[in-house]
Design a protein that fits this description.
Helix content: 40-55%
Strand order of the largest sheet: 1-2
Order of helices and strands: EEHEHEEEHHHHHHHEHHHHEHHHHHH
Structural class: mainly alpha
Largest sheet: 2 strands, antiparallel
Strand content: 5-15%
Shape: flat
């Protein structure tokens, strides 16, 4: 395959014709006789050289935009079964479109099978919390690291985890959920339980590929002309700091490479609004001021001011032939990207929870810490909270019978509670 005997899959890019991982292989070729014969010859040579016979009964031909004649031709030569897309490759559905609900069903089945085997009705909430964080949240990670889960799939997974946490069952209504799921998915230092937000965590995992594409340009997968989802691209463009070398890998308009910091798209949005659909690199844009030709129409006075300021700033840039561009992650001292620091970035605007460390670092049993967390958020099932849910309750405190019962009264103002605190102090 490295000899390039097969025609290019895409003449506009250098997409490799094969993908090899351990003993799993995918070969892309055109459904014509000479290419099918070539693939068969390569497999025969492999058999003669290694005394290992390819098992054609376990192999399959998966046509992409084909005719019946082409499909029959390839099958007759390779003697493989026909298997239409989507197919499963390295644990992921391989297709030319977004995955359907039926294709994602195995993911949901794995979740349901795990939950059923634990007998959740016999587990305390803190025990169920531990299983969600260590097991259930790990199941979709492989899928999320490559593909974006549809909104309905994320909601379905969250629904199952929410029901498992609060009630020990798949379905649960709002009254049984003592804390909103978004608050539960916050890190513990921001008053949450540290359960991963699936949507945000998926974006972070896919953000890693944007960095790897620049840091490992020699890898074959970087040759494929693919794009991450828009949210991931926008996050990468706004956070990643590009260090200009020869300028051949940095997007001129959207890359975060300007000498004074930031990107042209973010720093000068009015001027950027006059830019057409272009993906020129820094090297291309600076050569003979090629970037000027990307401006379309009659620009406004504000855009003209941005144009002049940008012209002056670009005079500070110098390219270095033979030196590759690099990218730095601004939220780590080493400049290397990490999934954990990227995930924390999403919660920087949040308010710190002053009691988080005190609650979760204590040596008390997990069920006690879980109860303290509920108490600190005022979500214990006191009379006040039972009233909000329309559940039967006694309005007065059952300990002192002197005042309405809510979390503040129960833990700080109740005379019985104060005597308990006094006994503990002495």
């Amino acid at each position: 395959m490295s000899a390039r005997l097969l025609d290019k899959v895409n003449h506009r890019s250098r997409v490799p014709n094969n993908s090899l991982y351990a003993d799993d292989a995918v070969i892309f070729f055109k459904p014509v006789r000479h290419e099918a014969m070539l693939v068969k010859a390569v497999l025969d040579l492999f058999s003669e050289a290694t005394d290992l016979l390819p098992n054609f009964s376990k192999s399959a031909v998966s046509p992409i935009r084909y005719t019946e004649e082409q499909s029959s031709l390839v099958q007759d030569i390779l003697h493989c079964k026909l298997q239409n897309l989507p197919i499963l490759y390295l644990g992921l559905p391989l297709s030319v479109r977004k995955p359907t609900k039926a294709e994602l069903q195995p993911l949901f089945d794995r979740l349901a099978k795990k939950v059923a085997g634990w007998k959740p009705k016999f587990l305390s909430p803190d025990g169920r919390l531990c299983l969600i964080k260590s097991v259930l949240m790990a199941i979709p990670v492989h899928f999320l690291s490559v593909m974006q889960l549809p909104k309905w799939a994320i909601k379905d997974i969250e629904r199952r985890c929410r029901g498992f946490l609060w009630k020990g069952q798949e379905e649960v209504n709002g009254g049984h959920c003592l804390v909103a799921w978004r608050a539960v998915c916050m890190p513990v230092e921001f008053s949450g339980l540290g359960i991963r937000d699936i949507e945000l965590f998926g974006k972070v995992l896919r953000l890693k590929w944007e960095f790897n594409r620049l840091e490992h340009e020699d890898r074959p997968w970087t040759l494929a002309n693919w794009e991450s989802d828009k949210d991931v691209r926008d996050i990468f463009s706004s956070i990643a700091q590009h260090m200009v070398g020869d300028g051949r890998r940095i997007n001129f308009w959207r890359g975060n490479w300007l000498p004074r910091g930031g990107s042209i798209a973010n720093n000068r949005p009015i001027l950027f609004s006059f830019v057409g659909r272009t993906k020129i690199t820094v090297a291309q844009g600076l050569t003979n001021n090629r970037w000027v030709r990307d401006l379309q129409g009659s620009i406004s006075n504000r855009a003209l001011a941005d144009y002049l300021n940008l012209w002056d700033e670009l005079q500070l840039v110098s390219l270095h032939d033979g030196q590759s561009d690099s990218v730095l992650w601004r939220f780590k001292a080493s400049g290397a990207f990490s999934v954990s620091s990227a995930y924390e970035f999403f919660f920087y605007p949040s308010v710190m929870f002053p009691h988080g460390e005190l609650i979760w670092k204590t040596k008390a049993p997990t069920r006690v810490r879980f109860f303290l967390w509920l108490a600190a958020k005022g979500r214990c099932l006191t009379a006040a909270n039972l009233s909000k849910r329309g559940w039967p309750h006694d309005t007065t405190c059952t300990l002192c019978r002197a005042a309405p019962e809510d979390c503040i009264h129960l833990f700080t103002k109740c005379s019985f509670t104060n005597r308990v605190w006094q006994q503990l102090r002495t």
